[in-house]
């Protein structure tokens, strides 16, 4: 299994966003996690298409776009056109989740579905076969710098079992409160894609990424 670090630029310094992304790229992060918030699905607003389009020229790394947006089906074409490689939508935000999943695939993007901490895995029962990734939120989405919710350990284990039972090849991404102190444990639970915002961008980006990779190897 491939283990991937996806730094969340929500915690980057926006006045030097391009430089921060270049540093994360040079330090070996395979993906760049891009949090889009609409002030409706989550109680915060971040940034949207123009920013994604602009930073697309900074790196060739995978753009992992996490849409915390109500009814994201309205904007799939636009996010695909900005250079998203993965588009992840929240199950809670889609009236017709299956339709949105197909829309993303039709655009040639990889598709992820995200679940808030309190959302049960059963919402995936009839859609899991179509997914490239499931994103388990390990904080209530909206802000960086929150603490990992321990109850998500079991949710990750259960999801890994569910994927294995069905014989699928689906990535498990974990987002929220991931640090060098808990990343090995989260990996042990069955996750293979790790989002980290404040643990990457607060302080020395290169040092932080090195630390996370080292901790991940254990
Ligand atoms: C939270 C976002 C996360 C956030 C993670 O709503 O989806 O991607 O940036 O930040 P940390 O790693 O600081 O918890
Ligand atoms: Zn995110």
Automatic annotation (TrEMBL):
Keywords: Carbohydrate metabolism, Cobalt, Isomerase, Manganese, Metal-binding, Zinc. The active site is at residues 35, 175. This is Ribulose-phosphate 3-epimerase. Belongs to the ribulose-phosphate 3-epimerase family. SUPFAM superfamilies: Ribulose-phoshate binding barrel (SSF51366). It catalyses: D-ribulose 5-phosphate = D-xylulose 5-phosphate. Binds 1 divalent metal cation per subunit. Pfam families: Ribul_P_3_epim. Its EC number is 5.1.3.1. One of its GO terms (molecular function) is metal ion binding. GO terms for cellular component: cytoplasm. Its cofactor is Fe(2+); Zn(2+); Mn(2+); Co(2+). PROSITE patterns: RIBUL_P_3_EPIMER_1 (PS01085).
């Amino acid at each position: 299994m491939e283990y991937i670090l996806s730094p969340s630029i929500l915690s980057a310094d926006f006045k030097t966003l391009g430089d921060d992304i270049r540093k994360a790229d040079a330090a070996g992060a395979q993906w760049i996690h891009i949090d889009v918030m609409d002030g409706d699905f989550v109680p915060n607003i971040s940034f949207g298409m123009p920013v994604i389009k602009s930073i697309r020229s900074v790196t060739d790394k995978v753009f992992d776009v996490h849409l915390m947006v109500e009814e994201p089906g309205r904007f799939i074409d636009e996010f695909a056109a900005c250079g998203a490689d993965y588009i992840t939508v929240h199950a809670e935000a889609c009236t017709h989740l299956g339709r949105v999943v197909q829309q993303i695939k039709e655009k040639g993007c990889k598709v992820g579905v995200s679940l808030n901490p309190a959302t049960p895995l059963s919402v995936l029962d009839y859609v899991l076969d179509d997914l490239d990734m499931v994103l388990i939120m390990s904080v209530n989405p909206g802000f960086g710098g929150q603490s990992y919710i321990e109850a998500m350990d079991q949710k990750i284990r259960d999801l890994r079992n569910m994927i294995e039972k069905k014989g699928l090849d689906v990535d498990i991404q974990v987002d929220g409160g991931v640090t060098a102190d808990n990343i090995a444990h989260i990996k042990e639970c069955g996750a293979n894609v790790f989002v980290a915002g404040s643990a990457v961008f607060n302080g020395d980006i290169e040092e932080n990424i090195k630390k996370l990779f080292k901790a991940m190897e254990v």
